[in-house]
C-alpha cells in the first residue's frame, strides 16, 4: 500500500518500483502485519541485493587474507579488495587510488586525522556548530592532548553556517578547518568549496565530512579542491565496518603512522620500524576485506543509477515531504525549508509530544524514524531543542511512504489527544 | 509493534502522570543533587533528595524527557517520599527488576502501586532507559546523601 | 581426493566430513581442476555457512543502526548486536558483558590499549621477540610518543620464551607486559597465566594477544587472571572487520576515551564532553554491526563443536603434519616439534628453494600456504631466517590434506631439481 | 594456477639466471647505494651503481630473495651495464610496462633480451613485486647518483 501511491512527482527515479525490488528488506512485514516504511536512511541505508551477493560470493568462494597470501584465493581476494579501492577512487574522482584509505567508519577516519595531524599550543582547529559528534569530540580530544584551541562557526537562525566572523575564526594559526558537507540534523548543504578555499588561503588543511553527502550528491574531490574527505560505507548502500578516508597523496605521505601493525610497515626490528606509504601506512592489520568488496559493489550500484538521478530523487521526495509536514498542526521543521537547498534528512518538533513518543507511535504504524539528538547535541542546543524527530529518505523512498508518515503523525496527535 | 502493544505501553496511568506529574520542581531543602542524562536521546533529569532520620523527606526534580521518563519520575515521587530509606531502596530494587525483566516479571501491586503500569515498558528495550532515568538518579543521589551505603 | 584419506587419526573431530560440508569454500575447484587444500588458516579461517547465513539474514531482514534507533528494525538490530556481545562474553568466560569491546580487528584492539594506557619517561613496556608486528609496532609508537622504554623477552634456540632474565626485565617501572598466547610463526604456546601473574606482581597490567589462541584453545579470562586480552574475528570463523578487546571492567573504566564520536559520549557541548562507560566509551561511531552478528554466530559454532574437540583435532593434525614434514629431505621446522606443546601453525625452511617459490609450486597443486615473514620479522631475524613457508591447519583440515602438502613439497623439490 | 602456468612462470632462462646470477656481489666503485625491501615477504636488495660520463659502468648488488627476484637482478645487470644512462632508463621503462601489463604486453626481444622470459611473471600480481625489486632499487640509486633526473 505504501508504495502504490498514484502520485508521479517529477524528479523521481525512473522505474522506482523496480529499484525497490533491489532491496530485499523493503518487503519486510513488521509486527501486526504492517509493511515497513523505512525513513531512517540518514542513520543507515538499506542494502541492495548486489551488495549482499557480492559479499556472499566473496565469503563462499574467494575468502583469504590479502597482500600477504600468494595462493590463488589470496590473489583473488587481494584483487577484489584492491578493485574496491579503484571503485571508490572513481566514485570520488580521486587523482590516484593511493589516496583512498579504508577505515572502520567515518568516525575512525576523522579520528585518524585528529590523531596524526600535528597540533600544538598556539595552533587552532576550526569546526562548526552543526557537526556530528564524530567531527567535534575527535577534535576536542586532539586539542586537549596538544594544547591547541578549538573554535567553531556558529549557526544562523535559519540553519546556515554563520560566516560573518569567518576572517577572525580562520587565521594564520589555524591548522585544520573541518566541516560537514551536509548536516545530518538540519539538512543544510554547506559551501564546501568556499570553506576549503578559505582553509587553503590561511595555510590550513580542509577536512570535509561527506558522510551525508556521499549518499546523495556527486562528490568530486578534485572539483571541491579539498585536502581530506571522509564518508562511511553503511550510508551509501554498503555494509557496516567500513569507511573511507580520502586525502591528497602528498599530504597523506607526510602524516605519521596511525596504528602500528601488519601491512603498514616497510621493515620491523625490535628497536624500530619504518613504514609503508599511503594507503598501506594507514591500514594496519587485516582490513575489512569483505566489507570493501561490499562497498565497492555499493558505489558501483550508485554509479549505475547515477548520482545525479539519485540527487534529483532525493530533492523530489524532500520537497514532497516538506509540503506534507507543513500540513501537520504544531509541527516545526528545523533547518532550511527549501528542498533544493538541503539534504534529505528532515528533523522536526511536534508541539506537545516528545520525539520518543512520536517515534514509538509511528513505529506502531510501521514508520521507522529516528528520535533523539542524532549525535548533534550542540546543533540542537543552538536552537534550544532537547531532541527532535528525524525522517530521512533515500533513493528507494516513495511519495506513498511520505503520505504514510504524515498520516501517522496525524494519528500521533490524536493518540496523545492534541486538539487541531 | 502493534496498536495493542502501543496501548500496553501507554497505559492511562502513565499518561495521567505525564500530564500531571507529582512532586515536580526543584525544592530548596536537599542533601544531594545529581544530574543524569540518557546519552542516546539527550533526556535529562536534575534530582535532589532530602533525607532526615533515615526517612526520605522529599524528592524534587526538574526533567526534560518523554512521557515514560516524566511519568516514572512522578511515580517515583509517590512511592518513596515518606518511606524509610531502606524500604524505598527495596521498592527501587523491585522496580528495577520489573524493568529489566523483558516483560516476564509479574509486578507486585502492593509494593509498586501505580508503577505496575510500567510493566508494558519492559518489553521495549529502547524505552527501559527512559523509565529508569530518574530512578537511577534517585539512587545515586541517596547514596551521595549518605542515606544508604549499599 | 584430498579429503578421502583412509587414515583415522585419534583426536580428529568426529564426523569431519560432515563438518567440512559446513564450509562452502572447501568445495571450490581451482584453476586446472585442482581441489582446494587450504592450509593458510592462521592467516584467516574459512567461514561456515551459519556465519554467512546469519549475516545475510541480518542484512536482508533486520538491518538498521543500533542503540540510537527506536523502531522495530532498530530494536532487532540492537538486540542482535548486543546478543553477539553476550556470546563473546560467554566464549571468553568474561565476568560481565561490559568487558567485551568490539574493535575492527586485533590490531586496533592492541593500538587502542597502546594509545590509552598512560605511559611516561621512566616507565617501561615489556613485550617478546615472538610477537606479531601488531603487538610490537603499536608499543614502539607508544614508547616513542611517551618516552617510555621498550623491552622484550628474547627466545631460546628451541623456540621458547627466554625467561632467564625475567626478574630484571619486568621491574617496578613496568607498566605493561604484552605477549602472545600462541605464536603465529613458531607455534609456541606461552605460559600466559605465569606471565600475567608476573605482571601483576610488578604492578603492571598484562595484555594477552590471543589472536592465534582463540581459534584453537579454550580461552578463559578468569582462569588466566589477566587484565586485557584481544583476538580477531576472521581467524575464529567470523568475518573480517571485527575484533575484540576484553578488559577487566574497572580497568576499562579507568582508561581515557580512544576515538571521539557517536555512542561513546554521555553529553557533548562545543566546549567539552563527558563519556560513557565501557563498552560504549570505546565504540565510537557506528560499530561493525553485521560483523558482530557474524562473529556471534562463529563463536557459537565453535562452542557447539566444543573448543576441546577443536583443540584435540588441531593437535592430531599438527602431529601428523610434523611427521609428514620430517620425511621431506632438507626441510627444517622452526619452533617446537612436539605437537602437544604447540599450535597448528608450522613454519619451515626447505634447503635450496625460497619460500615464495615453494608457495608458488604448491599453489599449482591447489595447496594454499603462506610464504614470507608472517608479520613476525623479529622472530625470523632471531633465527637468522629471511622468510619461511607456513602451513596452518584448522578444524576442517584432514590428514589427506597433509598428505597432499607433503607430496607437493616433494614435487617442489623435483621441480627445482634438488637431489634426494 | 595450473602446471602450465607454473612452467610459463619458471622459464628455463629464469632458473638459469637464478642458479648463476650475473654481476652479483657488492663492488667498491659506486656513487650511490640503496637498500630496498619487499614489505610483504621481507626480501631485500642492497644495490650500488657506478655511473661515469653518462654511462652505467657497473651495477653491483647483494640480495636475498626468491628465484624471480634473484633472476631479475641478474638480467638487470646484463641489460644496463655498459649502456648510456638514458638508454638504460628506457629499458627500465619497457621492463616496467611489461611487468605491469597483467600479461597483455608483448615484450620486444630486441630491447629486453633475456628479460622477455619475465612475461609470464606479469600474470602473477604477487610476484610482480619480486621481479621489480632490484629494478626499482636501480632506478632509485641511479637518480641519487645524479645519473638521471627524470
Ligand atoms: C598473533 C597475532 N596477533 C595479531 C594478529 C593481527 O590480527 P589482525 O590482522 O586481524 O588485526 C595476528 C594475525 O594476523 C596474529 O597472528
Ligand atoms: C554527518 C555525519 N558524520 C559522521 C557520521 C558518523 O558515521 P559513522 O557512525 O559511520 O562513523 C555520521 C553518521 O552517523 C554523520 O551523519
UniProtKB/TrEMBL annotation, chains A, C:
GO biological process: one example: cysteine metabolic process
- Aminotransferase class V domain: residues covered: 37-405
Reactions performed catalytically: (sulfur carrier)-H + L-cysteine = (sulfur carrier)-SH + L-alanine
Q: Which CDD domains match?
A: SufS_like (cd06453)
Needed co-factor(s): pyridoxal 5'-phosphate
- Entry keywords, A to Z: Pyridoxal phosphate, Transferase
Annotated coiled-coil positions are: none
Q: Determine the domain of life of the protein's source.
A: Bacteria
Enzyme class of the recorded protein, top EC level: transferase
Spell out the family assignment given in the record's similarity comment.
Belongs to the class-V pyridoxal-phosphate-dependent aminotransferase family. Csd subfamily.
**PANTHER family from the xrefs?**
CYSTEINE DESULFURASE, CYSTEINE DESULFURASE 1, CHLOROPLASTIC
Task: State the function annotated in the UniProt record.
Answer: Catalyzes the removal of elemental sulfur and selenium atoms from L-cysteine, L-cystine, L-selenocysteine, and L-selenocystine to produce L-alanine.
Q: Sorted alphabetically, which NCBIfam families does this protein's record hold?
A: sufS
Q: What is the protein named? A: Cysteine desulfurase
TrEMBL record, chains B, D:
Q: Name one GO molecular function term.
A: iron ion binding
| One GO term (biological process) | iron-sulfur cluster assembly
Recorded hits in PANTHER family, A to Z, give: IRON-SULFUR CLUSTER ASSEMBLY ENZYME NIFU HOMOLOG
Q: What Pfam families is this protein classified in? A: NifU_N
Family assignment from sequence similarity: Belongs to the NifU family.
Q: Tell me what this protein is called.
A: SUF system NifU family Fe-S cluster assembly protein
Ranges for domain NIF system FeS cluster assembly NifU N-terminal: 10-130
The scientific name of the source species is Nocardioides humilatus
Please name the NCBIfam families in this protein's record: SUF_scaf_2 (TIGR01994)
Gene3D superfamilies for the chain: 3.90.1010.10
In which domain of life is the source organism classified? Answer: Bacteria
